Each structure stands twice: as structure tokens, then as C-alpha cells.
Amino acid sequence: MENILSVKEQAHAAYTASHQLSTISTEEKNKALLEMADALEHRCNLILAENQIDLTNGRKKNLTASTLDRLMLNEERIKQIADGLRQIVSLPDPIGSGISEFRRPNGLDIRAIRVPLGVVGVIYEARPNVTADVIGLCIKSGNAIVLRGGSEAIHTNKIISSMLAAAAYTAGIPAGSIQFIETQDRQAVADMLKLRQYIDVIIPRGGKGLINYVIENSTIPVIETGAGVCHAYVDSSANMEMAGNIIINAKTSRPAVCNTIETLLINKAIAETFVPFIIDKLQAANVTIKGCPQVKALCPNIEDAVEADWSTEYHDLVISLKIVDTLDDAITHINTYNTKHSEVIITENYQNARIFQQKVDAAAVYVNASTRFTDGFEFGFGAEIGISTQKLHARGPMGLTALTTMKYLIDGNGQIR
Amino acid sequence: MENILSVKEQAHAAYTASHQLSTISTEEKNKALLEMADALEHRCNLILAENQIDLTNGRKKNLTASTLDRLMLNEERIKQIADGLRQIVSLPDPIGSGISEFRRPNGLDIRAIRVPLGVVGVIYEARPNVTADVIGLCIKSGNAIVLRGGSEAIHTNKIISSMLAAAAYTAGIPAGSIQFIETQDRQAVADMLKLRQYIDVIIPRGGKGLINYVIENSTIPVIETGAGVCHAYVDSSANMEMAGNIIINAKTSRPAVCNTIETLLINKAIAETFVPFIIDKLQAANVTIKGCPQVKALCPNIEDAVEADWSTEYHDLVISLKIVDTLDDAITHINTYNTKHSEVIITENYQNARIFQQKVDAAAVYVNASTRFTDGFEFGFGAEIGISTQKLHARGPMGLTALTTMKYLIDGNGQIR
């Protein structure tokens, strides 16, 4: 048994490091990121050996083929992870940049500038690439980090994080800035979620169960990410070809991710022609279709959609269809069942486009484009730390600025009140 | 016994109203605020009658004179509350304003715009003016509101909120937008803190006990406000007169509020002259002084500062003094004991000013000015919903924009990924 630090000691070390890390220059941070990327590539074999242990354990535990695939690394994938760190170098450093600056009538000069949050806690499930992504984004934004990964990838995550921590330290990043919690004891997560004095934010990345556990148990502020029950609404004036292309793309291009659509709402005025048209297309793409009674009346050879379907994120080639009477009914359905992630209307009607964008409550509201674009890279933000589905602090794809807060600097010459 | 709605029903009503309220125009919101202000003045006597009940109960409960004074309303104070609502009319409406706008290479146009948070929950203690302030700021920013006030002011808060709700409704604000929880059952607060599906943020305004209870029990995101253990550090190069004026102002102008200083750190190089100088001034202003052993060696006729003093917010004419060896020691002391509210260095040394502003972790870091300026009005933001002492979402004085989030609107012509 190794002699490992307690979660509290690790968080305290990160907290101590964060005060120094917040003042490190962009040049130093970039240099460290490049050396961290090199370290992963140079010692690629060590990572692959640890990854083999996780894969062997995973097969014993009968993990699904897709989970094993997400877990599996090879030389090319490690190069991709290293390149991800190099891409972070090219992103602008938000730290120290001005948000606003003004002079008060009494002569006080007030500046609001961006500063790091301090210590970022991330609790995540299987994917090893998250380890490097999150460490890279935190270092670039001057934040210390406490990571807790899932048991499936524990050996891989451990070697990646310790390699990155060592390379960062050698490159001048304060010792203790990168903390990986090694114990698989579940109590470690419960402990971590109460360390409000050391950790400034918790970002859970994983399934609904993990996210809800974190929300219910954390006294540290949480940024909720990832749950996506997204909708497409086909308005009566929609261009049918365009609607078909968008729906097939938004449902089938990567069905397991959060920005795919789960429910398709169709205006009754075009249902008679559109429903058979889209069902043909979806079936040709191997999508299982569930329908409300009105949809089934038009196409009986599909499954029944039940109440639970409207709030289900399938993570799979499954979609539920519903016919609605009006645009307002579509908006009400969406605001009732959505996770406030991404929503799209397909329409040629200007007023309806505008009303949909105003009234639908979601991070990203589209007109005539696939919801699959809700993504840090697609928005042009570079790497992302996650997609926020809550309203506080950050909403939608979170780039580096989501890992910052601000501070007012006030300069005077003796002003009193 | 009245037939009152459950907390859940009230929060649901606010949630339903919030969808309509989010699209109300600035003109309509301003008209409502003016009518709400008039309602308070026109029916002033009704408020005073209810206020008398609270005051009578308060005297029976032996509330302190200062608590009774904060609770007490008269015609002039009601006029001030009404004028507060009128001032909110003159603040710019943040809703709908653009944050950024860009075109992606694939032709997608992406706009980030400000939208209301949705439903704001406020849990507060005695002061009745908070009721009107908070309702006014929420209505102006398009948010529905669920209020839970303290028992001391229950009759006053109930009449003010019901008058404002009635006037708002008459002026076209959606029914249900303003919810005041009338029951004094403590379970109501516990219930409120779990209504994540309806309430977007909880802002506690009150003492440490209330704030900690909310943080520990809420599954809704919380904005922490108000705790203030603030410091002044007198550098070796400080202008002594200026330091004296700032310290006296920051300690004595309103000792009960959060932006006063609680601890004074003095560089040892000037301690011999500065300590007697400032102790004279503080004693002349009736301030009780506690000192570290080095301070006591210079001026024995003061109390001992013990470990607990360094993290105590006195809310009173009390200050603790400590001599530090270096600027770095001062910064370390501050970052160890502060509540990340407001901190000041008094110095004539450019480098030291810069280092202090960079390294001290607080919402507002001053050079040569009183910490008492950390306030929405003093910063020029107009009325404030509170002063955030956390790092997520909002930091420092929170004006109307702290009550907003953003939404991406994406316009395309059939883009798929």
C-alpha cells in the first residue's frame, strides 16, 4: 500500500500552489504546456503499459466494447492528446486582461481584471483524454487543479497526471499545482465536495448519476455540464430538404454526445407529408423511432412514445416524434422537458424564428442549423472544459474564460467616504 | 389560519411567470416600477400599521435598539424605499444587450446576448428595505422572485411585497412573478433550497449562520454575500496622515457593515512611530483595540489579540492590530484570514502597491483609499443586490448584470456538421 496524502492534504497543497500560480506569466505557462506535451509523447510506452492494465481489468469487468474503445490508447491517440496541449498554447491567455476601467467623480480609478478562479476540482468518468485536456486548460488559465477520475481508467489517468505534474514542475509551475486523487475509495469524493476552503469550483463530467450526486452533496459551487435532451422543431414553413438534413445530422452523426437531438416536434400543418418523409430517412439511418399517437396514426410501424421518453437522453440511435398544434406548443414542450442545452427551429418564417429564439430557454438556440455545433471548437473557443447547462457563471461551451473570475483594483490618493 | 400555497407551489408559480417576464419590454418594466413606488407611498399608512405590529413584537422579544431601529419605518423611510424603486428605473436594462457576435467560417452567425436568470430566490434577515430593493432589481432584470424574510419583520415585509405584487400585476407584470413566503415554519427554507427545478439562484442576505446554513443545504446554486473580514496594511513607506484618515474612516464610519476593516497590519519598520499614532486616533474615536505581543510591547494599555481575532468580523468599534516583518507576510496573513471582500495597502512605493494588488485574493484590492467604497452606488452601478464574496458568476458589488445570464443565438441556412 502506498503512502498517499489525504484528499484534504492534496486540496490544501493545490490551494497553496494556486497563489503562486496565479501570477505566472503567459510565456512560462506556454513553455510548460509544450514540455508537458513532449513528456507524454516521449514516454508513450509507459502510458500504453498502464493503459493495458486498465483494458485487461475492463475486459474482466465486461465493460462494453464502446467503453473499452473510449478507454483504449495507442500511439496515435497519445499524439492527439499531446497535440491538444499544444493547441492550448495558441489560445489567448485570459489572465490579467481588462474587463472594464473607469474613473469615479472622487478620483478613484477602478479596473476590473480577469484572474484565475484558484483551485478547480474535476470529477470525471472513463475517458483518459479528459485528464490532459483539463490539466492543460487549468494551467493555461493559472488555476491549480484537483482531479478525481473513474476506476476504469485509473492506471492510465494516474500515469498521465503524474507525468504532466512532473513536466510542469520541471518547467517552473509551482509544486502541488496538479493533484490527482489516487484512492478509489468513494469517501474521497464525498470529502472532496466539502473542501470549500480550498476548492473554488467543482466541475463534474460524466453521466446523470455522477452529476446529481455532485449537486446534492457539494458545498463547493458546481458548474453543471453535459446533460442534453435537445429538440428540433419543424415549423409549418420549413424547407423539408433542409429539415431532413439537419435532423439526420443532429441525430446520427454522433448519437452518444450531448448535443444530439432526442425529440423531434413537427407542426401539424405539415405532418401529413413531413412525418412519412422523415421516418423514411431516419429508418434508412437505422434510427429507432418512437411516436405520439398522432404520429403513429400516420405511420403505424413505429414504437409508442411514453411520457418518460420526452425527458430521456437516449445516447443512442433512438428518437421520439411528436406532432404539435402551434409554435407556442412546441416552445412549451421544449421549456418543460429540455435540459437547457441546444434547441433548433427549422423555418422560413422570420417572426417564428425570432419568437423561438426569444422564448426557448437554452444555452444555444438555433435557426436552420444542426445542434451538433454546440462545442467549444465549433464556436471558435478552442478546447473546452465542458458545456455548461446551468445559468450561473458560464453557459454553453466553456473555454478558458469560464475558468476565470475577476477582481477590482482600486487606486486612490487618500479617498475616504 | 390562512390558506397559503406551499413553497413548491409558490416557486412553480414564479417559474411559470418567469418565461413571460423574460420577454417584457424595458418600457413596461419601468412603468411597473414607477407604479410600484407610488403604491408604497399612497398606502403608506397600511405599511406603518403593520410595521407597528413588528415593532411591538420586537420589543416583547427584547430585540436590541439597533435592530429595532433598522426595523422601524416612518413616512420618510417609506419615501426612501419608493425612491429606491424610482432610481432602478433610471438604470440601463441589461436584458437583450449583446455580449459578443461573430461569424464562423461555415457562415453560422453566433450572437451571445444577456437574458434573465429566470427565478431568483432571496433569503434575508430583518431589514424591510431589502424587500423592495430586491423586488425592484429582479423586475428590472426580468426575473421572477421568491422571497423569504426573517420573522422580526414578517408583517412589514408581507404588506410591502403584497402591495408591490399587486401594483406590478396591475401594471402588466405577469401574475406570480413576485412570491413572498409567508409561513415562518423553518422547514419552508429547507424546502425552498431543494427546488432546483424552479429556482435558478439563491442569494442569502444576513449573518454568517444564515449564509452557512444556505451553503450547506442548498442544491440550487448560491451566491455568497456579505461576510467581511477586511484588512488595512500600512507599508513602511506609507504617508502616516493618509493612513490615519483611511483607517479611521474604514473602521468607524459604519462599523456594522461588511466593508469596514477588522484588522490592521503594520510594517515593523514604521511600527515604533505609527503604532502610538494610530492607537491615539482609534482610542479618540472610541475604538476598542486588540494587539499582538509586538504591538502590546509598544502600547501596553490595550487588549490581547488572540488567534480567533484574526478571523472575526466584529460588526462593532473593535479592531485588532498586528506588526508584520514584510509585505509578503502581510499578504500571507490576509490570504489566510480574509473573506475575500476588500483589502487596502497604504503605501508610497509603486512596486509594493502593484505586488499587493496582484497577490491579494479579494473582490476589491485598494491602494490608498478606504475599503468603505466597495458598494454598488460608490462603484457607479446603482442599487446592488449584494456584495459577492465568492468567485463564481459575480464578484464584489452586484448590480443588475449579476442577475442575468447569457444565451447563444445561432442563425444558419442549413449548416450541418
TrEMBL record, chains A, B:
Subcellular location: Cytoplasm
Biological processes annotated in GO: L-proline biosynthetic process
Keyword rRNA processing among record annotations: no
Catalytic activity: L-glutamate 5-semialdehyde + phosphate + NADP(+) = L-glutamyl 5-phosphate + NADPH + H(+)
Record-linked Pfam families: Aldedh (PF00171)
Top-level enzyme category: oxidoreductase
Keyword Amino-acid biosynthesis: yes
Chief place where the protein resides: cytoplasm
Superkingdom per UniProt: Bacteria
CDD domains reported for this sequence: ALDH_F18-19_ProA-GPR
Domain Aldehyde dehydrogenase: 7-287
Record key words, sorted: Amino-acid biosynthesis, Cytoplasm, NADP, Oxidoreductase, Proline biosynthesis
Any one of the GO CC terms: cytoplasm
Biological pathway: Amino-acid biosynthesis; L-proline biosynthesis; L-glutamate 5-semialdehyde from L-glutamate: step 2/2
Function noted in UniProt: Catalyzes the NADPH-dependent reduction of L-glutamate 5-phosphate into L-glutamate 5-semialdehyde and phosphate. The product spontaneously undergoes cyclization to form 1-pyrroline-5-carboxylate.
Annotated family: Belongs to the gamma-glutamyl phosphate reductase family.
Name under which the protein is recorded: Gamma-glutamyl phosphate reductase
Protein source organism: Pectinatus brassicae
Upper classification of the organism: Bacteria, Bacillati, Bacillota, Negativicutes, Selenomonadales
